[in-house]
């Protein structure tokens, strides 16, 4: 299959550090935070345009894209070390995951003792054990548990384990074939789960299913970008694609289409970096918060669970009548999340990642 005329053969590779994509991680994480903080009050949730819960799918596509960018050359040249890859992936996600898991378990114990109510009805010793092993979203539980957002980390871990095999499979095929297969699988799964009455983009405890088409789409998208580049790109095109996303939110376009628009945003942003087109996304501050977005994402629910207002709302059987104190609680939780995500990223996430990698990873000298 030939690329459309808007694409031409790529002469310049992507830069090693695609800064725009790092910055976009922050906005995706923030959208999920806002979604979770407004979820419990009808007036706030109904007034929020779009479906910010699909920000997780943005991460899944981006993960496939970035991992392929980082490791595909090593796989092709035979210098890829599976051990090094898995150690680095573990070091990337586990320290913050285990911290937030402990904090969530302590918060649950405290709120149960004081208020007689917890947050996640799926909390159990069994689910705590599977969470420690990062397999809680592999279809083992009926309901999410302990630090609810961590289900996506379990799904990511599943995709990490598959990545070397998926990358080899993708390399044997045309990038357009990989993208077509993954996009078709996404659309079919969305249709299938819609018929079942359980939207595909609402899957959490079965997150290992949800991540696969997004992740493979990211792999195919990168391989396509390595082969082809946009004939004409720039800030205007990027803002146009982002504008299309907001119009899709307002028009209530199906989630599968929104996810495909996410793929377009990732591709255009990477193209701008490849062609040296500067913009706000390359700035130091958005890039920093993009790097710290994992801590932001993992911590936000912990602080939310610890505040009195949401606990009281659960105690009152989900009452949604006092929006003002709830809104104040949102701002307090958000401020705490930003501050402590900065602290966690600086003093735990980066040092722990470096220590684990140096101690347990043994990369070949020529490995990418």
Ordered list of secondary-structure elements with their pairings:
Layout: E1 7-9, H1 19-38, H2 42-46, H3 55-77, H4 82-114, H5 125-132, H6 151-171, H7 175-196, H8 207-227, E2 228-230, H9 235-250, H10 255-274, H11 284-291, H12 293-306, H13 308-315, H14 323-360
Antiparallel strand pairs: 1-2
Helix pairs in contact: 1-3, 1-10, 1-11, 1-12, 3-6, 3-8, 3-10, 4-6, 4-12, 4-14, 6-8, 7-8, 7-10, 8-10, 9-10, 12-14
Q: Biggest sheet: strands side by side, in what order?
A: 1-2
Strand content: under 5%
Regions with little confidence, pLDDT below 50 for 5+ residues: none
Q: What is the SS-derived class?
A: mainly alpha
Shape label: globular
Structural notes for this entry:
The chain has 368 residues and is an all-alpha fold. The chain has one domain. 70% of the residues lie in helices and 2% in strands. A two-stranded antiparallel sheet has the order 1-2. Helix 12 (293-306) packs across helix 14. The radius of gyration is 21 Å and the shape is globular. The chain starts with 6 loop residues before the first strand and ends in an 8-residue tail after the last helix.
């Amino acid at each position: 299959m030939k690329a459309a005329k808007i694409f031409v053969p790529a002469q310049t590779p992507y830069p090693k550090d695609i800064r725009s994509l790092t910055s976009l991680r922050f906005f995706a994480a923030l959208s999920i935070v806002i979604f979770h903080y407004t979820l419990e009050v009808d007036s706030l949730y109904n007034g929020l345009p779009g479906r910010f819960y699909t920000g997780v799918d943005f991460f899944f596509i981006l993960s496939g894209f970035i991992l392929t960018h980082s490791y595909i050359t090593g796989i092709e040249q035979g210098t890829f070390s599976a051990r090094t890859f898995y150690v680095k992936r573990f070091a990337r996600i586990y320290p913050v995951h285990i911290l937030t898991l402990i904090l969530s378990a302590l918060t649950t114990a405290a709120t149960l003792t004081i208020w007689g109510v917890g947050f996640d009805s799926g909390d159990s010793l069994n689910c705590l054990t599977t969470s420690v092993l990062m397999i809680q979203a592999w279809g083992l539980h009926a309901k999410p548990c302990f630090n609810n957002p961590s289900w996506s980390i379990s799904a990511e871990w599943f995709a990490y384990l598959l990545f070397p095999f998926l990358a080899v499979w993708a390399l044997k095929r045309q990038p357009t074939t990989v993208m077509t297969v993954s996009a078709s699988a996404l659309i079919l799964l969305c249709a299938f789960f819609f018929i079942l009455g359980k939207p595909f983009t609402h899957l959490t405890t079965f997150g290992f299913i949800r991540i696969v088409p997004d992740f493979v789409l990211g792999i195919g998208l990168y391989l396509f970008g390595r082969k082809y580049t946009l004939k004409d790109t720039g800030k205007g095109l990027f803002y146009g694609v982002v504008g299309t996303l907001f119009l899709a939110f307002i028009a209530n376009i199906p989630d599968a289409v929104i996810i495909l628009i996410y793929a377009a945003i990732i591709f255009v942003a990477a193209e701008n970096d490849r062609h040296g087109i500067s913009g706000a996304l390359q700035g130091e501050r958005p890039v920093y918060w993009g790097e710290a977005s994992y801590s932001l994402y993992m911590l936000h629910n912990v602080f939310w669970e610890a505040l009195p207002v949401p606990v009281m709302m659960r105690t009152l059987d989900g009452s949604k009548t006092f929006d003002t104190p709830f809104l104040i609680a949102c701002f307090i939780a958000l401020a705490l999340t930003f501050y402590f995500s900065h602290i966690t990223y600086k003093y735990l996430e980066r040092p722990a990642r470096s220590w684990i990698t140096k101690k347990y990873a043994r990369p070949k000298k020529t490995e990418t």
